[in-house]
Design goal:
There is one protein chain. The protein is an alpha+beta fold. The chain has three helices and four strands, in the order ββββααα. The protein has a four-stranded antiparallel sheet, covered by helices on one side. The radius of gyration is 20 Å and the shape is extended.
């Protein structure tokens, strides 16, 4: 069973901790850096952290947490429900570790490609701005 707690800036946490967003439509999203609306997952080792981080990432991508969201204005997930979803998925993953590892590798590869595409889109956007930047008109006091 994992040690999942509500995040607090002054809490003592494992060196292998990661964070899980708990409010909004991205509830369940694992993160390396904390935010005010998150839980802390305290893993005992780097291996446990990696396993559970990518398990949460896959569950978040497949919207497995959505059915557990409550709240009419700002949806959120309770720590108990989040823990249950992770525990059930972890049991399935441990029953067939080879298949789980292949899925994690595929997720990692797709995540890397997605990040590269976002970087490329930013570069293209900047290039578009630069092409005609010298044709902009400025007020006379800038010349």
């Amino acid at each position: 069973m994992q040690k999942i707690t509500t995040y607090s800036p002054d809490q003592v946490r494992s060196p292998f901790a990661f964070f899980i967003l708990n409010k909004g439509m991205n509830s369940g999203k694992p993160m390396e850096q904390p935010c005010p609306n998150c839980f802390t997952f305290n893993a005992k080792s780097q291996e446990e952290k990696d396993h559970n981080f990518w398990l949460c990432f896959g569950l978040w991508q497949s919207r497995s947490f959505h059915q557990h969201l409550i709240g009419s204005v700002i949806p959120f997930i309770r720590i108990h429900e989040l823990s249950q979803v992770i525990n059930q998925a972890s049991e399935k993953a441990q029953s067939n570790p080879g298949t789980f590892q292949k899925k994690v590798e595929a997720l990692k590869m797709l995540d890397q490609h997605e990040k590269q595409y976002h970087r490329n889109l930013l570069l293209i956007s900047e290039a578009k701005k630069v092409i005609f930047a010298n044709y902009r008109s400025y007020p006379s006091f800038y010349r």
